[in-house]
Amino acid sequence: MLFALITLLLFAILIAYAFVILHAIEGWQSRELYIIKPRSQHLSADLITIVIPARTNNIINIPDLPVHIIVVNDHNEQPLQVVGKPDVEIIDNIYEQGKKHALHCGIEHAKSKYVITTDCDTRLTTEWFDTVCSYLFDHEVDMLIIPLKMRHSASLFEAMQETEYVALQTLTGGYVLAGDAIMCSGANMVVDREKWLASWDDILPDIPSGDDMFMLHSFKRQGLKIDFLKSPAATLEIQPSTTLKSLFAQRARWAGKAGRYTDRTTIKVALAVLAANLTVILFPPFVVIKWIIDLTLLWTSQRFFGFQHALLKSLLLSIVYPLYILTTLIIIPFSKNKW
Fold this sequence. Notes:
The protein has helices at residues 2-29, 99-109, 126-138, 156-177, 193-198, 211-221, 244-256, 264-282, 287-305, 310-331, and strands at 48-54, 59-62, 68-73, 81-84, 89-92, 114-118, 143-145, 148-150, 188-192, 226-228, 236-238. It is an alpha/beta fold.
């Protein structure tokens, strides 16, 4: 009797998880792809500034884009060198060390209405910039969340990361388009400069990471306009972690700051994902149900992200991910939250 009740409870957890995923799928499918529109008038470049904080990278590749770009040297021990664009402005972080303070320095230094934040290791392109500009011409936003994709996998280790990232990005876009944003990444995001600066205290400067998530939740509480640019042309590519140590360190940072989240939907989704993965550990046969749910999510956006072999990769993720989540939870107390 007790076993039956426990099994029923675990099954109910997976049903709740399925509803969380289906809500994201419904949101993702509610909007067509944005196609850049041919027009004689474009958004003036002086309305946008790109801000890139730099901590460990001393050589940064930036294409020659027609926009003001600020690279913030966050107490880097070596001189910064920019390759590609000749007129990048390099400034020093005059505040405390850390990504949040580096962003604050760069955004404060900018004079434009909008600021695009990104990272040193993202591959910026002219097509990306033109698409973002075109969208801002057509839409009034306070925060624009733009997709990211991970480099196509060359190994099983990278395949797991790529699969996880496709799932996370689909959840991100789906919930934004459903009108209830839960996640974002500062590696590809547009913010209204004045509103970002006015919300600075909400970013929790005492915590090294989480600049993007805490700002998202602040904008959401204020009822500001948060949108999602559903366009492969605007999607930037990032690199996977190269070692298990760096992967777990990054995920521990993500999970470690979650304790300070106050947004109800974000907490609800995080708990559903955690509970579903722990359910698979407690009752392994349920991995089949979770695999079907995850596969449905991945199939929704596989063409958008150019994601291949979703069937096999999702099976790999469904088997490995629960142990990966459990390991991350174990190492959180021993990890240092820094960028």
